[in-house]
């Protein structure tokens, strides 16, 4: 992933896909700690990727940060474990606050919203305020609308179409849509054939204001992002003529 151009490598030891069962803290630690320690040794240069730990457990986050991780990517937005905000604050780490209804085991059981964009945006703002009151620096936080986490395919498409409305939170937007089931509903493709849909969705998200894109297929995604960046530069230059 680093060789293909990833800016961040995200390491997780507990699946959060719909219906996934939790794992114990000890098991999660055994899975992620040696990987992060190894990456921290490997990623020692100034141009190396940052390391993110995908966890909702404070004990795992603390061990990962001590081992060399820089970011906590938490599907509960630092609310699932009461010790998590302090762990992030103590290490001065970055954090990704993701929106999710329920938990991975229950989140896809008939999710409903009156206005999914407004509700997710209001939730994002409330989490930023709450964490500021707990002593976290807002400049270290990013927000993720949680594509596929307690949302139908229609909810996911609406959120992506209105991503620029969520930028009002003033924090970087993280979007992860790679290979997700709603892409299968739109394209009719099984998970192993969703690269084209994933890259198309990623480019659209970038055009709508996403700052960080969480992907599986790094090389293809980086190529698409580089082309988009070049086209944006050319568009800006054309306006200057």
Task: Kindly describe this structure.
- Helix 1 runs parallel beside helix 2, helix 2 packs parallel to helix 3 and helix 8 packs parallel to helix 9.
- The protein is an alpha/beta fold and 241 residues long.
- The protein is built from 9 helices and 7 strands; from the N terminus they run βαβαβαβαβααβααβα.
- The protein is 46% helix and 12% strand.
Spell out the key features of this protein.
two-stranded parallel ribbon, globular, alpha/beta, 241 residues, five-stranded parallel β-sheet, TIM Barrel
Q: What is the topological layout?
A:
Elements (H helix, E strand, L loop, with lengths): L7 E5 L12 H18 L7 E5 L3 H10 L3 E4 L9 H8 L2 E5 L17 H18 L7 E4 L8 H9 L1 H4 L7 E3 L4 H7 L7 H13 L4 E3 L3 H23 L1
Parallel strand pairs: 1-2, 2-3, 3-4, 4-5, 6-7
- Please indicate the count of domains: 1
Radius of gyration over all CA atoms, rounded: 18 Å
Total of DSSP H or I helical runs spanning 4+ residues: 9
CATH superfamily: Dihydropteroate synthase-like
The level 1 CATH classification is Alpha Beta
H/E topology pattern? EHEHEHEHEHHEHHEH
Portion of residues within helices: 40-55%
Unreliably modeled segments: none
CATH architecture call: Alpha-Beta Barrel
Termini separation: 38 Å
Main sheet strand line-up: 1-2-3-4-5
Which percent band covers the strand fraction?
5-15%
Mean pLDDT, as a whole number?
A: 95
Largest sheet: 5 strands, parallel
- How many beta-strand runs? 7
Alpha-beta content class? alpha/beta
* CATH fold annotation: TIM Barrel
Shape: globular
